[in-house]
Amino acid sequence: MVYNMTVKEISLAAGCNKDTVIDTIKKQYPDLIQHGKTTRLTFEQSKKIMELLPKRNMVELKENSISELKENSISLIVSETIKGIMPIIQTMINENNRLMFQNQTQPRIEYKQDYFGIIGYANKHGIKDLPFTDALKLGKIASSLSRDKGKEIRKIDDERFGQVNSYHIDILKDVFGL
């Protein structure tokens, strides 16, 4: 099996700067470093470079230790990434818990529409294309019933007429006979 090591892997194994590794490779193997391309060294080349590098926290390079070094490099990267995102994850969990608690403790506000205009109520109950004259007649009946029963008559905005009267649904049920 052929083992290849990159400059980064050698610098991690040797415990020294990538630039130091690159300078050492350039001295030993002048044609090996190509700008913009990943440099890969064979086991023998890697071993020779590591022997020439300054001895700081040096990992002893053996044939089977290259794959271990690559696994350790990946583990180190994953570990550091997890350490970096853990505070963010914890903040998200805390915020989620806060929102869940808030949703449980706040009363739900339900909106029930209990006032409609004549045409709106008719449409809602499947009476389409109610003629304008019929709507006027029904509106007069609804106004009279509202006054008799003490129910408020409200004004609502209407795109065609500006404002129209709206009546409580109990009144409208009586007017429409529903």
Question: Outline of this structure?
Answer:
This protein has about 180 residues and is mostly helical. It has seven helices and five strands.
List keywords for this structure.
two-stranded antiparallel ribbon, 178 residues, rod-shaped, mainly alpha, 5 strands, 3-stranded antiparallel sheet
The gross shape turns out to be: rod-shaped
The structural class is mainly alpha
Integer tally of domains: 2
Mean pLDDT: 81
**Tally of separate helices:** 7
* Fraction of residues in helix: 55-70%
Strand order of the largest sheet: 3-5-4
Largest sheet: 3 strands, antiparallel
Order of helices and strands: EHHEHHEHHEEH
* Termini Cα gap: 86 Å
Report what the structure shows.
The structure is a single chain. It contains 7 helices and 5 strands; from the N terminus they run βααβααβααββα. The chain is mainly α and 178 residues long. It folds into 2 domains: 69 residues; 62 residues, no CATH class. The strands form 2 sheets. The chain has a 3-stranded antiparallel β-sheet. Strands 1-2 form a two-stranded antiparallel ribbon. Strand 4 and strand 5 form a beta hairpin. Helix 1 packs across helix 2 and helix 6 packs across helix 7. The radius of gyration is 40 Å and the shape is rod-shaped. The termini are far apart. The mean pLDDT is 81.
